[in-house]
Design a protein that fits this description.
Blueprint lengths: L1 H19 L3 E7 L5 E5 L2 E5 L5 E6 L48
Antiparallel strand pairs: 1-4, 2-3
Length: 106
């Protein structure tokens, strides 16, 4: 419950800041009218009201790319020969004499 209340408060503050800085411009174009209700001896009659209308203009945000000089490190890789043990698989046909597996790099 507290999290929802905090989110609502932040949203209201964001809207107030946007209106105060001119990022959002809100103008009312039609006023509200309450419904008319009349009670007579024959019953109750009601006429609908009118909701207000607003025109909202917002600022724009443009996102793009540009060029800039940025210092980047240079990495140099030099290959080095070293001997390591690698797996070796030998497949022998049936009836052939099995040879011991050795780890020799080829």
């Amino acid at each position: 419950m507290r999290a929802i209340l905090l989110i609502l408060i932040l949203a209201v503050v964001a809207v107030i800041a946007a209106v105060a800085t001119g990022f959002i411009d809100i103008r009312q174009t039609r006023e509200a009218q309450a419904p008319r209700v009349t009670a007579t001896g024959h019953g109750v009659q009601a006429q609908g009201g009118q909701a207000p209308a607003f025109e909202v203009e917002t600022g724009s945000v443009q996102v793009g790319t540009g060029t800039a000089n940025v210092a980047t490190p240079t990495v140099k890789i030099e290959p080095k020969q070293s001997q390591v043990a690698v797996p070796k698989v030998t497949v022998n046909r049936p009836g052939a004499q099995a040879q011991p597996a050795t780890n020799t790099a080829q």
